[in-house]
Amino acid sequence: MTSRSDAFGSAAIALIKAGLWIWVLFNVGMVVWVALNSLKTSKEIFDNPLGVPGAWMWENFATAWSTSGLGAATLNSILLVTVSVVLIMALAIPAAYAVARLGGRSSGPVATFFAIGMSIPFQAFAVPMVIISIGLSRFMIDWITGVWDPRITVALFYVVLSLPFSVFVLIGYFRSLPGELEEAAALDGATPFRTFRQIMIPLAKPGITTVAVLNALSLWNETVIVLMLVPNQRMQTLNVALLNFYSNMQYTSNWGGLFAGVVIVVLPMIVTYFWFGRRIVSGMTQGIGK
Amino acid sequence: MAASTTPGGALHVARRRLYLPMLLPALLAYLVFFVVPSLFGVVLSFGEWSGLGTEFSWVGLANYTGLLTSELFVASFLNTLLLTVIVGGVLFLIAAASMVVLRTARAGAFIRSAIFLPFMISPIAVGLAVSFLFNPEGVINTALEVTGLSELRRPWLGPDLIFQVIMAGVVWSAAGFYVVLVMSAVDGIPPSLFEVARIEGAGPLQQFRYITLPLTRDMLGIAAALWAIAGIKTFELIIAFVGTAGTPPPEARTLAVEQYLRVTGGRVGGLAQLGEAAAIGVLMTAITAVLIVLSRRIQRRDRLEWA
Amino acid sequence: MRTWTAVVVAGALLATGACGTKLQETPSSSAAPKTLVYWGKWAKGTPQATLFESVIADYTKQTGVKVDVQWLAQGQEDQVKNAIATGQGPDFYDTAIDHTAGFRAAGALGDMSAVFKTKIPGEGKTIEEVLPKSVLKAISDDKGYGFVPHSVFSIGLWYDSSRYPDFAPKTFDDFLQLAVMEKAGKRQPIAQDGTINSYNAFWLYQVLLTTAGPGTLRQLAEDPAAWDRPEVKKAVTSIEALVKAKLFQTDYMATKFPAGQNAWAAGDHTFNLNGSWLGSETASLRAASVKPRIVPLPPVDPAKGSVVTVGALGWAVNPNSKNPQAAADFLAFAMQKKNIDRIATDAANIPSRSDSPAPVELISIQESIRNATDVSLDFDGLAAVNPKWFNDVFLPLDDKLIGGKIDAETFLREGKAQTGAMVG
Lengths: 290, 307, 424
Fold this sequence. Notes:
CATH superfamily of the largest domain in chain C: Periplasmic binding protein-like II
Largest sheet of chain B: 2 strands, antiparallel
CATH class of chain B: Mainly Alpha
Oligomer: heterotrimer
Number of strands of chain B: 2
Structural class of chain B: mainly alpha
Mean pLDDT of chain B: 84
Number of strands of chain C: 13
Number of helices of chain B: 14
Order of helices and strands of chain B: HEEHHHHHHHHHHHHH
Number of domains of chain C: 2
Strand content of chain B: under 5%
Strand order of the largest sheet of chain C: 2-1-3-11-6-12
Radius of gyration of chain C: 24 Å
């Protein structure tokens, strides 16, 4: 702090800091609370919501894992999210680059056109999505491949529904990159595509990582599309399995198991996030709308 | 910002030639599988339909007039606007406060990560946590009692307070995302600017006022656009708060909740009213489109550049 | 473009190890099918899912016919409707009374009478003959039977029989007096999850049944004049008296479900008006001393005949199924007494068959279902037929009445006005 900083300013800053730390403690406390409850009996969760478990019920995890088919669901989730994110990025990066750095007059409207896609509420899209899904599977089975996997349809809609956000944010990112490097590369005789691939993509890596991680996080939590398009429990995802487990609490009353399920779903995300955390933050740092 | 580097010449032509091949795959996928199917919603909004296998009939503008004359719908409309504006304001204050302190704070990255946490926690976990916090005998009321503030005990989830509690919940879950977003812009400001200001005797609040705020206006515009889109669609957290049984009380309904009630037939096996649901969707898209265009106006003003 | 994207997506999925499977295996329409397809609403691991899986295993062992079961839980209804509407879907599926109208409208439900005439193996009786009349009535609409029921449920007053071994109030007022006495002993007698509006509405609806009979709620939805009926007024004032006596748990309009019913199970409160499912739902949270029992809510006017609310869960057959006979055979197999008995023993619910005993805490209400002179669907089936009035007029007003925000008079006035506005 400077010697002349006003008292009011430092008081305000101390207050803000205290507030942020309380918030942080609260969030960490929530995680610990969920973790502790996943090790309690159902009765104890309600009788003693804040304490440490009396008996550590590790079997909650076994129950949650086996009864709700979380094993297969985990594989499905990982597969769907990975494939979708790869495809989203493969489509969005070139498009965003084109709009941000190659476009002429049409680039402004195209950017707005993508942005408006974010505002279309999902429900407006649900019925046509089901129709397309059924039509697509019939078409493929009858005419092309003879077999179809509804997870492919889910991935298709994951990709198109994520495009508006991804393209919108990446456009902002590419716009913020300095143009001099492109010029230098061109003077060295690089083709525009090579410039894009070898110079601009590496430069944009933090932004690309950010967008990829944000997409992965939201697709990991997606439930509705899978619920509507996948009539096969063996192909459903982790969150759907958890939701089913939750909505059947009235028949099983296994609250401890439910918390264990929540931990199984959330923990990989928290670990991944803190693992990538620095990269996300730094991605944002050089990112979105600098 | 210039869209292409060197106007004219072979290079320019080569770059222009790359434009369509790079843009088209995404644009076509978006158009064919997203925009066109969504237009189906517009068509549907002029009819009455309960889903595949049921009969469809045209009703003209009846869905729209029915909605706009329904008191409950108008109330949910006002709820949505109220929520978007109030929560948006609070989010801005939190983002601004973070901009003042987080740049220099120790463990700043950790604080950002921890605040970001709710963004990735499933609504089910949030719903469970709510019951333990806000229940009449929950942690908040118990804590108030223990600290001698029992007059502040409230039935938090009752009809009088539920909407305020939901708004607090939305702030809690969304703030991390926006803090991380605007902080990325703050981190992009050259530290030397703050250095100079400090030497010239500017306090942290003045630094914020004269350096941080003007130089992050772009990002604030983007954040505002993203919030407008998300705010109008607020839905999941309300369901997490109100629970998976029963229907949300009128006090806690937003446009998206009203739409959901019609899509699911009120969750009790009733016939879906897809026509009205589609009409709500069209109205929501229209409102958001206006907000997006407005927020792009903010961004398009003169950029402030630093040397 | 469509094929192009599809091929890319398909290739990517296949490359990462997904195995493509046929979306729908439709067995040939020859006489003896090898496989029946069943789409269930239960989640895997629930007592019902486990029970039905074991019935299916028995059936396959005896007949060689496989049943491919998919436990779809959430979203099952939409999946079934969409698939059947496009000529696909299961041979039979889980449903409930609330869903009959929706499945009918979507063309997913046909004539079930042949199924009901199927003989149950080893018993010499048809499915129709082993079910109580009240249940048969409840599962029918104007087009006939909606599904083959395996479980039934009802709405009634749960109480702790360790506190009241001889609990048998004759009238609603007797019950109120008992509750008031309990309150005088510094104990809030009634647990209520007031944030679940349909649970709040159980009170008015069950009382309406005893003053004006079934079908009244439907009249209230369709005819503003019905709000002036004296029986309606009597029911609403009875609820007003209940609210004014302040018998519900503290801050009941703000409990986060299932906190209220859990508090009841823990023995903090004596009563809870709820479905017959409440016992099994709260079993793991019950205090050792609590002995739950359920009875029909005592009537306001005991002179009127006994009416009981009946709900049911069961199986419906896809009208476009290529194996209708095989599906009927399987359902008849599943309806054997030894199987349906297990609804009580394995799943703690009321079995549909007249001769299958309910779990001990549900015996009284099962008795009422068997002997009922008249049945009512939950909320007159209105939630399914007229969800708009139910959700936008009735439930919000009822919440205000139960929450003590408005009195009986205002409730009736507002209800009449809003219904009038909606009917137009």
